[in-house]
Amino acid sequence: MYNGVILCAAMEYTEVVQNFVLDHKIGLSVAVSVGVVLWGIRRYVKGPRYYGKRRIDGKTVIITGGNTGIGKETAIDLAKRGAKVIIACRDMTRGNNAVGDIKRLSGSTNVSMVQLDLASLKSVRKFAEEIHKTEKRLDILINNAGVMACPYMKTEDGLEMQFGVNHIGHFLLTNLLLDLIKKAAPSRIVNVSSLAHVFTGQLNFDDIAKRERYYNAEEAYTQSKLCNILFTKELASRLSGTGVTTYSLHPGAIDTELGRHWRSKQRLIREPIYFIYSLFTKTPYEGALTNIYCAVDESLDKETGKYYSDCAEKAPSKPALDEGAAKKLWELSEKLVGL
After folding, report:
1. pTM for the model
2. Rounded to an integer, what distance in angstroms lies between the CA atom of residue 152 and that of residue 59?
3. Among residues 44, 50, 221, 285, which one is catalytic?
4. Among this protein's residues, is 221 annotated catalytic?
5. What pLDDT, on the 0 to 100 scale, is given for residue 50?
6. 97 C-beta neighbours (distance < 10 Å), count
7. Torsion sign, CA atoms 87, 88, 89, 95
8. What are the start-end ranges of the H helices in 47-152?
9. 38: pLDDT strictly greater than 50
10. For 119-144, how does the pLDDT look when each residue is reduced to its tens digit (9 = 90+)?
11. Which uninterrupted H or E stretch holds 146?
12. From the DSSP assignment, how many helices (H) and strands (E) are in the chain?
């Protein structure tokens, strides 16, 4: 009798479901179709996985901004591959906490941090001095740290913050470490740029350093990301024949701390937009995959000066291919940092 009651209940439930499906078949078809489309968009945005297994035992890696986001995920992966990993970050407390996390998650004890504030050329020089005291070579430098769409601010040296941190700080850092990088050849320099560079035109050399005439946070960010690609291109040319190769990349749309300034403005409007946007973003680990690919993949051993996204070479914008602009940016940068 008990089994009969269960059977009857199951049959009634099945009939209810069938009737519901028949009564709402159009709505359910639309819902399923929308779900499939959204799933497809999400999979496309996330990009391909990187499965390269190359070991880098005994190699030394420096990652700026390695205490959070894609920098931290990159540090964990490269530590797993056997590298000595040094994360460079401004906040000592957060940096030391990140070192503990990276050691725990990678299983490596060969992880450390050195303080670096890219908004201070004095700090950059001090960092380089510390590295020269402790390291005899540098195999991989990943210029990952950055700031995005912040309110108008200046660095310690009077430069517009996004240009100063995203480009100038890394420009000086790279040049001060080049002797160690050349000693480790074949070695690599990886500069994290962004697809955002396509939303700007030629660099505004007249006011790019300070932007005192006019400031738009988004424009300043896109131009700083264009600088990353032009720097990579010119660096590749100047390092030709040394065994040092360079790469710039777009890590993808990622839900990290980088977007905090953009979200803080017009919050009532931007928070809902950001929520929807976050549904289709990569995780920090997924965003780190192109970092890792450019740092270790065997197929890139002989490539240099190119731009990558989703673990594949991509064509950057036309202004990013301007050799004249790349040389002019280098000369301006040398002047600003006193090289």
Report:
1. 0.84
2. 39
3. 221
4. yes
5. 86
6. 14
7. positive
8. 69-80, 92-106, 121-134
9. no
10. 999 999 999 999 999 999 999 999 99
11. none
12. 12, 8
